[in-house]
Automatic annotation (TrEMBL):
Keyword flag Transferase: yes
Highest taxon, organism lineage: Eukaryota
Name the UniProt record assigns to this protein: N-acetyltransferase domain-containing protein
Keywords recorded for this protein, A-Z: Acyltransferase, Transferase
PROSITE patterns hit by this protein: GNAT
Gene Ontology CC, one term: cytoplasm
Organism, scientific name: [Myrmecia] bisecta
MF terms (GO), sorted A to Z: N-acetyltransferase activity
InterPro entries according to UniProt: Acyl_CoA_acyltransferase (IPR016181), GNAT_dom (IPR000182), NSI-like (IPR045039)
Residue ranges annotated for the N-acetyltransferase domain, each copy included: 30-199
Amino acid sequence: MFAGLFGSNKSASAVVTREDTESRTDSALDSLERGFESDLDEVTLIESPREDGSCASIIFRNGGPVDAVALELLCDKVGWPRRPVNKVQIALKNSFLISTLWLRRTGPGQDAKDEMIALARATSDHAFNATIWDVLVDPEYQSQGLGKALVENMVRTLLRKDIANITLFADANVVTFYQNLGFEADPDGIKGMFWYPKF
C-alpha cells in the first residue's frame, strides 16, 4: 500500500517490496491507533532511512496550523476548483478538528522539510453532530490507505469527544470508499437537503 510513499524516485535505496509494504501498512495503522489512544498531536507513521543518511517520513497530525494557500495548492493537485483564500482561512479557523498528513524529508546537516500531502477537517456543534469536509490526498500518494487512515482517525477522535452523529458529503465516485468505512447513504430514508441561491 505504501509502495509509492516517497515519490517516484526509483533508486535502489528507495525500492520497497510488496511484503515490506504490507507489513509497513499494518505497522503504520497500528502506530496510528496506539498513538491516538491518548490524543497525541503527532504520530510518525512510517520512516524510510536511506543509505546517504537522508530520511523520508509520513507524519500524522491532529490540529496544528494549516496554511490556506498550501491547502488550495493541494486542492489544485486533486482537481478541485479554486476557492477564495480568505474564506478558506476562515473555514480552517472555525473547524472543530483538522487532521493532516505530512511528508517530512531530512538529510545530513539539513533542516527537516515538511510538505502537506493530505487533509480532512470537521465542523461540529461540540455536542451531538459533526460533518467531515475536504478529505483530500495528493494524487501521488493516493491508493495507499492514507485517506482511510485520516477518516478513521477523525471518526475515532469525534467519538472520543462524545459526538456520535457524523455526516459527510461525497461525490458519486467515492461513495463506496465511505461505505467501506461504515458510512451509510440515506440511513432510514433520511435525505440531505440543500438550499442554493437562484440567480
